[in-house]
Design brief:
By secondary structure, the protein is mostly beta strands. 0% of the residues lie in helices and 55% in strands. The strands form two sheets. Strands 2, 4, 5, 6, 9, 10 and 11 form a seven-stranded mixed beta sheet that branches. It is globular and about 40 Å long.
């Protein structure tokens, strides 16, 4: 079982930045993929960024160049640095851990970008 707790969401003006944090209850080196998703109201959940235990990362086109996923293996934290935020980035942001065939979710953190 993996528990995930997100934090760092809030209200920010367009063009601003936020850093989201995800605290995992287990060593993230035991987790195959750590991911960030978001879900705007009335829309499907969207994969934004992936970090593997081998140290590679990948991004959705919608956030490439603006968002950066990072991790601290010593503290079992995963971060999402979000820059140049746009109103369309407003959503609930979720941390996800994929360990073998199991998928775990955090409770989400709200990000609202005002124009």
């Amino acid at each position: 079982q993996v528990q995930l707790v997100e934090s760092g969401g809030g209200l920010v003006q367009a063009g601003g930045s936020l850093r989201l944090s995800c605290a995992a209850s287990v060593s993230i080196l035991s987790i195959d993929f750590m991911r960030w998703y978001r879900q705007p109201p009335g829309n499907q959940r969207e994969l934004l960024a992936t970090s593997t235990k081998k140290g590679s990362s990948g991004y959705a086109d919608s956030v490439k160049g603006r968002f950066t996923i990072s991790r601290d293996n010593d503290t079992n934290m995963v971060y999402l640095q979000m820059n140049s935020l746009k109103p369309e980035d407003s959503a609930v942001y979720y941390c996800n851990a994929r360990k073998k065939r199991y998928s775990y979710w955090g409770q989400g953190t709200q990000v609202t970008v005002s124009s």
